[in-house]
Amino acid sequence: MTATFPAPAARATARATGDDVARDALADYLATHDPLATVDLTVPERTWVRIGSVSSADIWLITWPAGSSTGWHDHGSASGAFVTLAGQLTEYVWTGVATASTLGERAVREFDGSHIHDVINHGTTTAVSLHAYAPSLAAMTRYELVRGRLQVTSVEQRGESW
């Protein structure tokens, strides 16, 4: 798998941000692993599995059958990055309104700890993505869109639901 990872942004300090760490962890993982070699594309539900840790970031592999989605959520205080390995995904980002971006194969998306989104496979085939979270993903807040506003529906803790 070859993906083009953006060069680290200019920093005011020498300290890397969480999304920098996550992006670099994805690049490091993909330099030595082929996550698609172990994926079962016939599973009918969205699946996610933590497959390792690189450079202080957790690495997760997610399969997305046609029509599957995450629902609106954040990643607690974790920043992250993900790359679409197969298929394409649509990411809806909440900034007071929903905006959409389609992420084709090899597209990389970075985000900080304040990011709220919903990711959906609108395609007709299973998509696969690789995600990194730094610091480790410990909690996720779930939201529901009600009358044009996001409302918290639950907070999931690592070990309880995933």
From TrEMBL:
Keywords: Dioxygenase, Iron, Metal-binding, Oxidoreductase. InterPro entries: CDO_1, RmlC-like_jellyroll, RmlC_Cupin_sf. Gene3D superfamilies: Jelly Rolls. GO terms for molecular function: ferrous iron binding; oxidoreductase activity, acting on single donors with incorporation of molecular oxygen, incorporation of two atoms of oxygen. Fe cation binds at H73, H75, H117. CDD domains: cupin_CDO (cd10548). Belongs to the cysteine dioxygenase family. This is Cysteine dioxygenase.
